[in-house]
Amino acid sequence: MADAQNYIADNPKMAQPPAYWLQRLYDYDALLVVLPSRQTPFAYVLARKARRTAQLTPAGVYSVESDTGMCASYGLVPVCLVYKSGSGWSIDNVIAELQSRDIWRQGGGEKAADMLDERDAKQAEKIKADIRDDMYNRSGDAWRSYQARTGQRSKLNASTPQKKAAVTKTPSTSSGSTAGLGIVLTDM
User: Fold this and answer.
1) Total structural domains in the chain?
2) In which domain, by residue range, is 52 found?
3) What is the pLDDT of residues 79-111, one digit of tens each?
4) What is the rounded CA–CA span in Å between residue 30 and residue 49?
5) What are the residues whose beta carbons fall under 8 Å from the beta carbon of 84, sequence distance 6 or more?
């Protein structure tokens, strides 16, 4: 039975995951263990039995009350926190997340590093494209605003016919003066 092998009831007040949930986790990886968190309320620590690495030592390095110290006292290496959301237990999203993090499933360290580099390059290109698109839209808005403020273009005036200003010359009152050479604009 999987629940005896991959669940440690460190806090008896926390609900134990159902047997089918623990069995599916055991079927995915027999070295994974679930324990209630000591630090985060209503959370569970997903940890792995230490096999190839040296065990963590809680004395002097980690507080026994911390999740890492708790895992070290059981001979485990912490992986992540798992939260139960809603009334049911869903293991599919936990297994999918573990699979996406599994370097060996992705082809090893070099392939995983190449995939991360490719993802980072795509994110950088997307950021550049978003900035370029934003700047294009802002410059277009600024140009239309400039045209509207200077009277070169106005949506209100474009749909209604404009009245033209009449140009009239004022008669010259004195022959040698320049006062009569101006123009006067009037509305019709």
Assistant:
1) 2
2) 2-102
3) 888 887 777 788 888 888 888 888 877 788 888
4) 9
5) 15, 17, 42, 44
Q: Say yes or no to pLDDT of 163 above 70.
A: no
Q: At CB < 8 A and 24+ separation, what contacts does 71-74 make?
A: 71/35, 71/45, 71/47, 74/8, 74/33, 74/35, 74/47
pLDDT, position 1: 47
Of 51, 61, 92, 57, whose CA–CA distance to 72 is shortest? 57
Give pTM, 2 decimals. 0.55
Instruction: Give the 3-state secondary structure of residue 83.
Output: strand
**Residue whose pair of structure tokens reads 């900035």 in the numeric block:** 131
- CB–CB of 160/144 below 8 Å? no
Residues 9 and 29 in one domain: yes
CA 146 distance to own-chain centroid = 35
Percent of the residues in the chain that have a pLDDT greater than 70, as a whole number: 73
Q: What rounded mean pLDDT belongs to the chain?
A: 79
Q: Which of 38, 36, 33, 34 is nearest to 14 (CA)?
A: 36
Task: Report the distance separating Cα 140 and Cα 158, nearest Å.
Answer: 19
